[in-house]
Every structure is written in C-alpha cells, then in structure tokens.
Amino acid sequence: MDSFTTVGSMLEPLAHIGRDPKTGGYLRDSWSDADLELREWFAGEAARRGLDLREDRNGNLWAWWGAPSPERPGVVTGSHLDSVRQGGAYDGPLGVVSAFAALDLLRGRAVTPSVPVGVVCFADEEGARFGVPCMGSRLLTGVLSPERALGLTDDDGGTLAEAMRRAGRRPERAGRDDETLADVGTFVELHVEQGRGLVTEGRPVGVAAAIWPHGRWRFDFRGRADHAGTTGLADRDDPMLPFARMVLAAREAAQRRGVVATVGKVRVSPGNANAIPGLVSAWLDARGADESEVRGLVADLAQAVGADEPGAGPGPGPGGVDVREESWTPVVDFDVALRDRLARVAGGDTPAPILPTGAGHDAGILAAAGVPSAMLFVRNPTGVSHSPDEHAERADCEAGVVALADVLEDLCR
Ligand code: GLV
Ligand code: MN
Ligand code: MN
Ligand code: MN
C-alpha cells in the first residue's frame, strides 16, 4: 500500500470533525461530540484491520495486532485526537493516522512481529477542557489521582466525572491501571514538530531528545465589581491592574531567566464593558530547559502580585490574589539507547537529527513512568502549532510513516 495515499486519505475523513468553518481551526475538547466522533473513527479503523479494540478505564483507546500480556508486552505507537481550541489538523491526529498507516506498511512488507503491535489514542492530551494536559496517560500511570481528576471542572462548571458519564463511561473506574500499562513494552509517538528544528536541519524526520519541564498555574485576582462611570479612580479595587502587572512581569522574568511564559487564557467576571470586574482569572504556562528557572519565574510572579507561594489552598478573599498550580511535568530525558536506535533506523544513510522540545506529550508521561519511550517528529515548514496554520507537507508525512514503520519493524523483530 502506498503510504502517501494512506496518510492523505486517512486524514481526509477527519478534516470536518470539530472544524470551525469560520477559522478553519479545530475544537476537539475531550468527551465532546467531536471527540466521540473521532473515537468512533478510531474504532472503525481498528475494525477494518481486524485489530482487537480495547478502551481502558481512563478512556484511552488501544487497537492490538496480536494479544499483549505482561510476559509478552507489545510495541505501541500512536498519539491523541483531541485538540487545543482553534488547533491545527496535525497535532495528535498525525501520530494516530501514521500509526495505522505504518501498521499497514508492515503488513504490506509481510513482517511477522515477534511481539504484539498496538495503536493507541490517549484521552485528553491537551487539557483544553479540564485544565490538566495528558489526562489519560497521567491517570493510567497514577501520577494524577482520580479524586483530583474527576472533580476538575470545565468553563461551564461541569466535572470530568459528569462528562465521562454523559459519554457513557464509568468514571468510578478511572485511576492507575497497572494491567493496561503492563501490556506496553515500548512506546513510540510520532508528532508534527512544533518548531523549526527540522527546517534548519533540512530533514523531514527527527527524534526527540528531551521534553522541557513545564507547568500551568492559575492566578485569581479578586476586586470589587462596581460601575464604570460613577466610581472614582481612588475608590476602585480593580483586579485588572494586578493582572496586567503580572503579565508584564511574566515577560520580564522569562527574558531574565531564559525560559518562556505565556498567559493564553483569561476569564473576566462578570465581563461587562461598563463595570469594573470582580474577578480576573488568568492561566500562566511556563516552560524552560532549567526547572529551577521555571519554578523561580512562578515565585517571582507570586511575589510581584503579593501572593503566597503557589499552593492548592482555598480561593482569595476580597482584594486578594491566589496562585494555584494546576499541573507540573518534570524534565523528561528520553532513553538514550532507544533514542539513538530510532535516529539510526529512521535516518537512513545519516542518523536523524535529535531535537529537544518545549511541547508536552503522552510519551513524556510514559517515559517518566518507566516505559521505554521515544518520539519521531515530522517537519513543520513554519513551525507554527496550536493554531489553524499548523502544517506538514504530505511528502514529509509519508517520510514519517516510512520511518515509523522501519522503527516498529526494528523494535518488534
Ligand atoms: C501540549 O501540546 C502542550 O505542549 O501544551
Ligand atoms: Mn498540542
Ligand atoms: Mn500533541
Ligand atoms: Mn502536546
């Protein structure tokens, strides 16, 4: 089977799912109608290939060629199908589509794997709806407790537990799942590159070296709602002002500390043009190669706005500010031997370039849980991601599938 047509034709039926026709961006929140449609698609692809479909207790989907067991764990590949809001077509789906396409290629080559081969779709990688990224893999590996996860709320105040129940799932079963994890011998995630490393290298496919430590923090600034026209400046308690100072301080501290910091989500309550807000909630995303600098930045900001160190305490009182950590992922250095093996196999004549990344991935969560894991990146001509402008050329996607098939063949020899 020609992998070029396979990737193109497999992305095609996904193109309309969750797409905002006005922007061309995708809205694929976990457990939304779009997510459920994508899950149906995954099940259909598994069935078409005669794979054994399983959904684990945390909503992760697994399609197996062969039956894995703790004595004979499989080689697994895949990624996720959910998206950030107004996301691109490739972040996640490219890895899932390429996984099925690579499996087709192995069968086309008449490869008989010595261990089972699995395709996975992890639940809620982006954390767009409930705030914590890599929810499915964090629950699976036990780094996130089901008590905390199930109580997380979306913008409408609905909990993850309610969303799962509405989708016909049983949230009470969520949590660390050693049985499922024991089936995974090795995990390889293919992903569109979210940067221009491969453009600089002039190569279509690369391998991940490490994932930067990264986290999300919520800042709640509370003031006093009042009339925009009749309240004198001296009489205001306007939470927009400390919020604005925080944004500027984040940029300054990031520059000084050599890390990156982003405030990409803000909620202003009640949100009237003609009223001083009563509450401004802002989400900070901070990442960098050096964990102490990332932590230092958050401490700088907490100090700049007069908050205590970030904690999980109760909300602020009137006029106060509260900072809470919503997620934290320590640095992930991928297994060096596995990484070098991938670079050799995927690179052809010259080993594939090995690149660090500031993006988070389920492969990082699995690696941290002790599963030998690695990642392949496919060139992104502009480096843009988490945006409708995200792109990968079809020829590079094809090269990614061939590289992934070569890697899987090597790993399950
Ligand atoms: C997810 O893609 C992230 O890196 O935030
Ligand atoms: Mn992403
Ligand atoms: Mn992704
Ligand atoms: Mn990601």
From TrEMBL:
Domain of life where this protein originates: Bacteria
Pfam families linked to this entry: Peptidase_M20
Record-linked Gene3D superfamilies: 3.30.70.360, Zn peptidases
Membership in a protein family: Belongs to the peptidase M20 family.
Entry keywords, A to Z: Hydrolase
SUPFAM superfamilies: Bacterial exopeptidase dimerisation domain (SSF55031), Zn-dependent exopeptidases (SSF53187)
Protein name, per record: Allantoate amidohydrolase
InterPro entries to which the protein is assigned, alphabetical: Amidase_Cbmase (IPR010158), Bact_exopeptidase_dim_dom (IPR036264), Peptidase_M20 (IPR002933)
